[in-house]
Specification:
Blueprint lengths: L2 H13 L2 H8 L3 H15 L4 E3 L4 E3 L1 H29 L4 E6 L5 H14 L4 E6 L2 H10 L4 E5 L8 E13 L11 E2 L7 E5 L5 H11 L5 E7 L2 H9 L4 E5 L9 E5 L7 E8 L9 H7 L6
Parallel strand pairs: 3-4, 3-5, 7-11, 8-9, 8-10
Antiparallel strand pairs: 1-2, 5-12, 6-10, 6-11, 6-12
Helix pairs in contact: 1-2, 1-3, 1-4, 2-3, 5-9
Family: Belongs to the LysR transcriptional regulatory family.
Protein name: LysR family transcriptional regulator
Keywords: DNA-binding, Transcription, Transcription regulation
């Protein structure tokens, strides 16, 4: 069995023609037919039903075609990964950062990079959490920073820091020293931003884990500042990381039933292949605020 045979099978399955598949693969039709026949013999079954008018996958072929495509895709990814490793400038480190990440953390990270004096060039891109994982998988970025939870098993995810989640509403002007409990959120209308940045997912997870019914406001804000303004207008309650709250006089700390502060955690993610880079140790050290 070889990749050429598998590529021929996919070409025939997509074109439904041995002749068209041969043209697509730049081989003669007899060469393609013989290669597929050899593969069928090795696999122990016919992959195609072939008549003078049509070509179609057999039930046996239908069962295997998805795995065959996965093998071909895996080879392509392997070649891309090898090319990226051999051609990249190890001094350039591309980092995708969620807009939820604290400016103070970013400043501290850049300062640590500078102090390490390893000649690293950090290239930052602000990205929604929904875009970070695909960008990591395709090699567009090397590291991604965003809020937990992460659900991608192929990536390594480690905590970097956490910060308090604050309760923002129009009625808190004189009560900022008194924390709000999670239980007080039950039945109250919660304001959310869109799905992509990860804040809404983190808030839903918080409610689910603590078994608190979540009442979502039907509309969605486009930014954290709008979320805060809506809370100030009395439309509902906003829950924001402390670093994203502009008017702290209308924000209260949030605590759980045990009296512990409720926080939102942030993680760094990367593909396992990043750990082979000479610069990995320096980048890992630069990301060390609380975790890693």
């Amino acid at each position: 069995m070889n990749f050429q045979q598998l590529r021929f099978v996919v070409a025939v399955a997509e074109t439904r023609s041995f002749t068209s598949a041969a043209d697509l693969c730049c081989v003669t039709q007899p060469a393609l037919s013989n290669a597929i026949a050899q593969l069928e013999e090795e696999l122990g079954g016919k992959l195609f039903d072939r008549t003078t008018r049509s070509v179609a996958l057999t039930d046996f072929g239908q069962t295997l075609i998805t795995d065959i495509r996965h093998i071909i895709d895996a080879k392509s990814q392997l070649m891309v990964g090898a090319s990226e490793y051999l051609t990249r400038d190890d001094r350039n480190v591309r980092v995708g950062i969620s807009p939820l990440i604290s400016d103070d953390f970013v400043a501290a990270m850049l300062s640590r990079i500078e102090n390490l004096n390893g000649g690293l060039n950090i290239i930052l891109s602000e990205m929604n959490k929904a875009d970070i994982q695909p960008a990591l998988n395709t090699g567009q970025i090397d590291f991604g920073l965003g809020p937990e939870p992460w659900g991608e098993d192929s990536l390594i995810s480690k905590p970097i820091y956490s910060e308090p989640l604050l309760y923002v509403s129009a009625t808190q002007g004189e009560r900022t020293d008194e924390p709000a409990t999670l239980e007080t959120l039950s039945g109250k209308q919660i304001l959310l931003v869109g799905e992509d940045c990860g804040l809404s997912v983190a808030i839903r997870t918080l409610f689910q884990v603590n078994q608190i019914p979540l009442v979502e406001y039907e509309g969605k804000a486009l930014s954290y500042s709008i979320l805060e303004k809506w809370a100030m207008l009395g439309i509902g309650i906003a829950l924001l990381p402390a670093s994203k709250v502009a008017n702290v006089s209308c924000a209260r700390r949030l605590i759980n039933g045990d009296g512990a502060a409720v926080s939102i955690g942030f993680h760094a993610c990367w593909k396992p292949s990043q750990e082979l880079r000479h610069s990995f140790a320096a980048v890992k050290m630069a990301l060390q605020a609380d975790g890693l």
